[in-house]
Specification:
The strands form two sheets. The protein has a three-stranded mixed beta sheet with strand order 1-5-4. With 115 residues, it is α+β, with helices and mostly antiparallel strands. The N and C termini lie far apart (33 Å). Strand 2 and strand 3 form a beta hairpin.
Length: 115
């Protein structure tokens, strides 16, 4: 299975879980195809316990009822993991940047695909 198919499979699972938890508040899902929404760099692996891993995540865009899946580059993922160790459960300015970029990308996607 290639990376895109694997990411879609993970997003399908996340979507099913979000629908079970949030019901009709989640209407659709979409995978962000761009570079890192945190910094704009290409997506690359991060190292966790000596192993390479991709950081696959999801954001709920409540206004649109959309679950947006996305990858982070290794640098942004590491920044968020380090922050979570120091301040568990607290969002960072990087989270706000990621969410704003994902909302804008989804709105552009919808504008380009809606008739």
């Amino acid at each position: 299975m290639d990376e895109k198919a694997a990411a879609e499979a993970v997003l399908d699972q996340m979507y099913a879980m979000a629908r079970a938890q949030f019901g009709d508040a989640i209407q659709t899902h979409w995978f962000y195809p761009g570079p890192c929404p945190g910094c704009g760099r290409p997506i690359d692996a991060m190292v966790i316990d000596g192993e390479q891993a991709l950081s696959v995540n999801a954001y709920i865009y409540r206004k649109r009822g959309a679950l947006i899946g996305y990858f982070l580059c290794g640098r942004c993922a590491a920044r968020i993991h380090e922050s979570a160790k120091r301040r568990p459960g607290r969002p960072t300015p990087l989270h706000a940047t990621i969410e704003a970029n994902l909302r804008a990308a989804y709105d552009r996607y919808r504008a380009a695909t809606d008739v």
